[in-house]
Design goal:
Layout (H helix, E strand, L loop, with lengths): L1 H27 L24 H6 L1 H13 L5 H23 L2
Amino acid sequence: MTHGKALILVVVALVAGFGAGFVLRPMIVPMHPVAAAPDDAPSAQYPVAPRSKQYFAAHLDKARQVLAACKDGAVGGDECANAERAVIEADGHDRFKRFMGN
């Protein structure tokens, strides 16, 4: 009989825990909507996500400009890494094409 009571107690505790988790989640990790930046607002208030490697692969001139700014210290973070990866892959692709005679 104690085995059945222990099983019921565990199930009740799990249900209560999951229920509390669903109820308390908005308070623990609040979901804030991303506000659109007005055109006349300064960009320092609205951080811009770094451009992706695919963007820089399509715009190699921008990638090389960002790499130069990264070396000067004007730009940092993921944008530098993404630009560097795109330039390295493009240069490698060009070297491979030259090696193969294309």
